[in-house]
Design goal:
By secondary structure, the chain is α/β, with parallel strands linked by helices. The protein is built from five helices and eight strands. It has a four-stranded mixed β-sheet. The protein has a four-stranded mixed β-sheet with strand order 5-6-8-7.
C-alpha cells in the first residue's frame, strides 16, 4: 500500500540544491539552500519534508514527519470506512426453469436488491435450446415484471454466445 505520504522525501533524502520552505506554522520562509532548510528544521526538532517535488524549486515543509504519516493513515482509514462497496450478484437460470425454482431465484434477486447490490440475471441455453431465444427473453421479461417495485433495468437483455444477460439495479429509496 503505497500512498503520497510514503513517497515524500524527508530530510537528507531531498536531492534538490534549493527548495522553497514553508515553516511549521504555515509561514513562507522563501527559497533557500537545502542545507540551510535542514538546519532550521533540526533546530526546531522537526523534519524537512518534500510536499511538492515536481515544483521548481521543490516545495518543502518543516513538520513532524511521524505525526504527518499518522494523520494521512487516519484519513485513508476514515475514507475506507465511509465508502460503500456495491457488488454485482449473478443469478443463473435456464429457459426450462420450473415454477418453484423460478420463485426461489426471484426471492434471491429480491434479497440482493434490498441489500443494495446490483444483480445480473443470466439465462443459459444448452444444445438446441438456443433456437428458443424467445423463451429466455420472456423469462427475463417476467423477472423484470415481478421486481418492478424494487428494481430498475440497468442494462436491457442482450445475447452473447449461448447466454442472455440482464442487469438490474435497486431503486433509490425516497426518505
Amino acid at each position: 500500500m503505497t500512498s503520497a505520504s510514503d513517497s515524500a522525501r524527508c530530510n537528507h533524502q531531498i536531492r534538490a540544491r534549493e527548495v522553497r520552505v514553508i515553516a511549521d506554522d504555515g509561514q513562507q520562509l522563501g527559497i533557500m539552500p537545502t542545507i540551510d532548510a535542514l538546519r532550521q528544521a533540526q533546530e526546531k526538532g522537526l523534519d524537512l519534508v518534500e510536499v511538492a517535488a515536481q515544483a521548481d524549486p521543490p516545495v518543502c515543509r518543516i513538520m513532524d514527519y511521524g505525526k504527518y504519516k499518522y494523520q494521512q493513515q487516519k484519513k485513508q482509514q476514515e475514507a475506507r470506512k465511509k465508502s460503500t462497496v456495491i457488488q454485482v450478484k449473478e443469478i443463473k437460470v435456464r429457459p426450462k426453469t420450473d415454477e418453484h425454482d423460478y420463485l426461489t431465484k426471484v426471492k434471491h434477486i429480491r434479497r440482493f436488491l434490498e441489500e443494495g447490490d446490483r444483480c445480473k440475471v443470466s439465462v443459459f441455453f444448452r444444445g438446441r435450446e438456443v433456437v428458443h431465444k424467445d423463451r429466455g427473453a420472456s423469462l427475463l421479461e417476467r423477472i423484470v415484471q415481478d421486481l418492478t417495485e424494487i428494481a430498475k433495468v440497468e442494462q436491457e437483455p442482450r445475447f452473447e454466445g449461448r447466454v442472455m444477460h440482464l442487469m438490474l439495479a435497486p431503486l433509490v429509496k425516497k426518505k
